What we know:
This protein is mainly beta.
Amino acid sequence: MSGPTGAKRCPLCGAALVERAGPFGRFFGxxxxxxxxxxxxxxxxxxxxxxxxxxxxxxCDEPLIYVDGRHxxxxxxxxxxxxxxxxxxxxxxxxGLPCPACGRGTLIARRSHAQGALFHACSRFPACxxxxxxxxxxxxxxxxxxxxxxxxxxTRKGQCVRLCPEADCAYQEPLDAEACRPLEPREGE
Length: 189
């Protein structure tokens, strides 16, 4: 319990209000307690302005903003509650490539537990089990089977290759060792 707060007075009895600590946090209470049971919550700090995503809502053309919800951060419409559009923000390591198996998820970078090898898997796991080893290269579709992307991989012999991930296609192009630098683990991984 702290001393009386300067100019704050109880609106019921006129006694000074004091700051107190309770099981649910700090509050102001009348110093004439138990004769007067007036309490009030301390003023809350102002909410920060929402951070804009830089895109418009596809449903109502209002700006999209980042929202900190009880289950984490997400992207929502600034016109809430009239427009209830929301989406998950991009995950770290999200390639942005659509999953070729289900077409609904995106390929997300992961590392295997045993050797720490880089692979990409569908963001809808466990509903979709698609995964591909290496680094997807969307700017290089397969010239033989026209798969939408090829992968950058290091072979067991240590050679760097651009490889088609489609099981029925065995197309691969050898590359110089400098091209495989993105596959090497970074500091702290």
